[in-house]
Design a protein that fits this description.
2 copies of one chain form a homodimer.
Chain A: E1 2-6, H1 11-22, E2 26-31, H2 34-41, H3 53-64, E3 68-72, H4 78-88, E4 92-95, H5 102-105, H6 109-133, E5 138-144, E6 159-164, E7 167-172, H7 180-199, E8 202-208, E9 211-212, H8 238-248, E10 252-255, E11 261-266, H9 267-279, E12 286-292, E13 295-298, H10 299-312, E14 319-322, H11 340-344, H12 353-365, H13 383-392
Parallel strand pairs in A: 1-2, 1-4, 2-3, 4-5, 5-8, 8-12, 9-11, 10-14
Antiparallel strand pairs in A: 6-7, 11-13
Chain lengths: 393, 393
């Protein structure tokens, strides 16, 4: 199958590319290196040294005998999208090409505007690229569990049946997110759902929770194949960050009460879920939605697990409680469904002691790359509001 | 009160400006003449001759003694927004500055991209302008009843209480629109609701139905004060268009079965509703939503009313049934609530025989401006899909 991966340089994009390539698919990746550029400007280093996509592709070919085509280009530009779809004609497209950091989307006006514009225009161009060049192709869109927020009712898998004043309707499950980034993903859903109904697109929306992990089956041969891995507060997901904090002796930073619950998954399960979606495409005119996570943890649960695993390895892991820089519920009901991918055959990799230990060991081997002072970034959800209040006082 | 009107050149923007000016408010309007430019490029004429904003402002000042400040600028540009908010410091902002045509948003890729980008970025810049310069100002956003679509349950006023598996939640009423334009308004709602929760903005969202009418109290003094009035299929609302079709002897064009129901209102009621919102602002941290229409009609109802009123005036009005160029339900349940504005004191102007007759007479006086061949534009919701099918066959 010909598979196009948008955002193929990223943590998940590159890992997905190698995984699907190893299963014999013809892979093309495109990226504009936006993550690398933003991180450079914000003085954020990755944990691993990541060669360019071209170099990683050559490395992968040398190891696997499989070639991954590389395009560097900006998917906000229609000319770039049109040329790509016209030349590659994918059977499936996996869409990771979004600015994925909640804190970055709340950092300042420019970063917020970039997040809104990039995420919406890329999704829009993807839709129009499919319609114009490959109308039967399957779009696999990475959504996020964060779109649902933390409602007081059980979270269903994408949709909800409502009986209201004696009449029935089926609707998108209500979405109400906690950052501008997550809100742009809600808007992606609106856009995709509209065009699915109008143009009978095939779309799978994978509502993913925070991902953790480093190695995949394909990275073990050569460290140059390891993914872009952030351990800073801006781009690092919480468990990945805690692992690095444990290794470098930086107290684990729990926001507020730490009872914020989310659904997490191992990067190996991200790869498995995407492959399941590829192997079992959505129907024409179907927006198929899966909740993509394997276990629910609170932030306190994660901190405790990292501390236990770290201390077992002789680290002296401390946990700090910080004033919450976000505006979010610190204690809440959380019961999200996640049966769709399991019934397609997902075999979860749970967060066992062995998994924790392997992550800690991998980070230990790259410990010299850690720059402690990069970890905390100080982004506050209402920083500008506070600034205004001070000015007015 | 200092009131800023975004999109102050348009059908409703200019009418609102004069109405609030006549009530003694200090008004500033901004527009980039996008509607005039799009119509010029699409070879669409307005029914009335509309002088520039500056000229209309001078005309209004000569008549009323009140001045309306005029800025010409593009609200997609942050510099323009920042300069405006910094100099004018409004107490309330009325946001009409969106590409409002459903058919134009479905016309081609460029028009769709423009609609998405303009509508989202202007709303985003408005939010950031308020936050940075006037955090206590009241945002009055024109939404649309079209955001709800035509669900199988009663449409509530913005919100719905859901009991699901024994637990309760309150959510935005599910939204599911029938055009990209209407979908961008859903995305506006997502964006506003997010920032209302984060930054405690005051927002009123007026979910308006299709508006009809020409004259307002302020336009009667001078025809130069009449609003931009479209009678073409792209920018003309259905009743306005039918009135012009009746006058020029063009059979009324009903799409499909004609049982599509919507909530309509007179332009006088738009002005009254906006004024009620201004006089009764939303609270800090409140997204207040009103369904803004006064009567529900089907397209067949409207065609019948226009035919009856026209024939009474000696016209020979015919009704044509056309293949529906849109993808929409042609027969559906429709029961939307609309009590909020009534309880604030709205006194509706219903679609009486007198109202119909006055509209027909106004159009008759400007009959020489009608260009029949401009009426139908042939925009199809799935035109591009059909094109692709033909290419593939």
């Amino acid at each position: 199958m010909k598979i196009l991966i948008l955002g193929g340089d990223g943590y998940l994009g590159w890992s997905t590319a190698m995984n699907l390539s190893s299963h014999g698919h013809e892979i093309c990746v495109i990226d504009n290196y936006a993550r690398r550029e933003i991180c450079a400007k914000q003085n954020i280093q990755f944990l691993f040294e990541n060669p360019s996509l071209e170099e990683r592709s050559q490395c992968w070919e040398a190891i696997s005998g499989q070639r991954i085509k590389v395009h560097i280009g900006d998917l906000q530009q229609w000319d770039c999208v049109a040329a790509l779809f016209n030349s590659f004609k994918p059977d499936a497209i996996i869409h990771y090409a979004e600015q994925p950091s909640a804190p970055y989307s709340m950092f300042d006006r420019d970063s917020a505007a970039y997040t809104l514009q990039n995420n919406l225009l890329v999704t829009f161009n993807l839709i129009h690229g499919v319609k114009q060049f490959v109308p039967d192709a399957h779009i696999i869109k990475l959504g996020t569990m964060g779109e649902y927020g933390t409602p007081n009712i059980e979270i269903e898998e994408g949709w909800i049946d409502i009986t209201h004043k004696g009449r029935d309707g089926r609707f998108l499950f209500p979405r109400q997110a906690g950052s501008l980034y997550h809100t742009t993903k809600i808007m992606d859903t609106d856009l995709l759902w509209f065009y699915v109904r109008m143009w009978k697109l095939r779309v799978t929306d994978l509502m993913q929770g925070p991902v953790y992990g480093m190695h995949t089956e394909q990275t073990r041969a050569d460290d140059r194949l390891l993914p872009l891995f952030n351990y800073d507060e801006m781009f690092g997901t919480v468990l990945n960050r805690f692992i690095v904090q444990a290794v470098c002796g930086y107290p684990l930073t729990v926001y507020g009460k730490g009872e914020q619950k989310r659904g997490y998954l191992n990067i190996l399960d991200t790869l498995a879920c995407v492959k399941l979606a590829i192997d079992n495409p959505a129907q024409q005119g179907e927006l198929r939605i899966f909740n993509q996570f394997t276990e629910v943890f609170s932030v306190n649960d994660l901190a405790q697990k990292v501390a236990t695993a770290g201390n077992k390895m002789g680290m002296n892991v401390k946990i700090d409680s910080l004033e919450n820089p976000r505006i979010e519920a610190e204690e809440h009901f959380y019961q999200p469904a996640h049966t769709g991918l399991l019934s397609l055959g997902l075999k979860p990799h749970y967060l066992t002691d062995d998994v924790m230990a392997e992550m800690l060991e991998t980070v230990l081997r790259h410990q010299s790359n850690i720059e402690k002072e990069q970890i905390m970034r100080g982004v506050k959800w209402d920083a500008s509001v506070q600034k205004i209040k001070t000015q007015a006082a």
